[in-house]
Structures are given as C-alpha cells and as structure tokens.
Amino acid sequence: MIFDFRLRVFKSVADKLSFTKAAHELFISQPAVTKHINELEKQVGRPLFNRHGNSISLTGEGELLLSYAKKILLLYQELDDELNSLQKNLSGHLRIGASTTIAQYILPRILAGFKKSYPEVQLTLINGNTERIEQLLLSNDIDMGMIEGYSTLPQLHYEHFVEDEIVLVTSTGNPKITQQEINLETLRHLPLVIREDGSGTLDIIEHALEEHQIRRRDWNIEVQLGSTESIKQYLVHSNAFAFLSIHTVVDELASNKLRVIELENKVISRTLQFISLHGQHARLAGLFRQHCIRRYNKD
Length: 299
Description:
Blueprint: H1 5-16, H2 19-26, H3 30-44, E1 49-52, E2 55-58, H4 60-86, E3 92-99, H5 100-117, E4 121-128, H6 130-138, E5 144-147, E6 156-171, E7 181-182, H7 184-187, E8 191-194, H8 200-210, E9 220-224, H9 228-236, E10 241-245, H10 250-254, E11 258-263, E12 268-277, H11 283-298
Parallel strand pairs: 3-4, 3-5, 7-11, 8-9
Antiparallel strand pairs: 1-2, 5-12, 6-10, 6-11, 6-12
Helix pairs in contact: 1-2, 1-3, 1-4, 2-3, 5-11
C-alpha cells in the first residue's frame, strides 16, 4: 500500500497519546517513533504534542494535522484499492463499523462469505452503538458503517440494507403476562429492560411509542444494560420485558427460553442502513456493500 509512513506514525501517536504504544502497533522502536515525530515538527515549524512528563497531548497544530492525516491516509487507501482493481488482484484493508445487532447477529456469516471470495482482503469489524459508528466514520477511523436507527446527519450518506422488526420479549415462564397479545396501555406498567443511550434500537422504540403518547418518562424502566446479550440473560432470570430485534432472539425462541408478546395493532420496524461519507467511493466498500445485499437476499 502506498502511504507516507511518517504520517502514519503521527496518527498512531495521536490516537494513542503514547510513543510507546505507537511503537508497538507499528513494530518499530520508540526512538524511531520519536525521530519521525521530531522531523514532522521541524517541517511544520511548531510542536505537534505538548509534553507533560510521562504523558502527552495534541497542540492546536497537532489537532489540525490529525484531521488532515486521516483524510490523506483514507485517500491513500482508495488509491491502493483502485490500483489493485486495475491489476485484477483485489486486496487491501476494509474497516467496517457496525451497530450491535448487525455486528453480532447479521454480519458474521456475510463476512465469512466475503473472505472466501476475496481472501487477500483484510477485514476489521468494529462494534458499537449507532452514535459511535457515525462518529468513527466522520473521523475517518472506518471506511463504511452499518447502523440501525433514525439518524440523518447531513455529513453522511444513508442507503437501505434490509428491514428489521423489533419485538417485545420476555421469559417463557413469566407469570405477569400469560396472553400472547397486549394493548399499549398494559405496556405502560410492564417492567422494561432497555439499552444504553445512543443505541439505535432504543431510538426506534422511543419514536414508535411516542406516536401513541407513551414517552420515555412514562416507561416503567427496571434496568438499563449495555448489550443485547446481557439483556437476554437478564430476561431469562427475571420477570422483566424488553424490545429486541427479531434477529437477536432466534435461538432463544427456538429453545423456548424467551417468547414474543404481540402489541395490539402495532408493529415496530426499522431499516438497517449502510452509511458512508458523501463523495467517498472506495472500491472495497462498494464491493462489500453489494456482497451484503446479495448474500442476505440469498440466505
């Protein structure tokens, strides 16, 4: 891959705020890292880092250089992708960020298929809530994102992937509700387990219930947990309820650990989306996007 190694050294130090950690990441010595940074500072004519004993922080010039370094390194990646495509030897590094539901329950089989088709492509998957994935994309720390939720940041391009349904689930033996369907008024009184703020799933639920004048302050929240897996385990060992993607509870429904409670005259659905920066057309990201669509529809 074509790139300015000195710029990569700077980005590593800036990301980790550590010369030692950057040296480990880049497999070079700490004196070599120091030398590269000193040479960059001579070129800029100003310090890029404030030294505070054993710690460092970015100066104003360092912050500015970091913002441009991310863009420049991204352009190098796109150039490398294009050169590989001309040579019909597809390789490179694709950094994907995906919100929790997609990363844990939809992408693994798709990634496996893509790797079989393009074994020379290096794949990195970062998992986080929708808000974090958007921020990683805006800072050029990932090449593409896949999210759930209602986000519409003007800096980002959103593209439909697939529809998903959010269902109300509880443990099979929960005595609080024995019927298969409840009305929305009953929902107000049920103890709910919800995801952390910034979660795309939580965002969808809030919007859907607000349409029926059930606002978050009206919910009977029992606990707030940071992952779908922890919520499922909590449900199995309690009499609480939670809204989860149907994709995430397939195994638990099949093994009769959890059951779905239907909402009278109400279906909560959402669109899972690809996100990218406006004007960004990296070949690898586009190829992976098409692979996702083909593989999901096939399976």
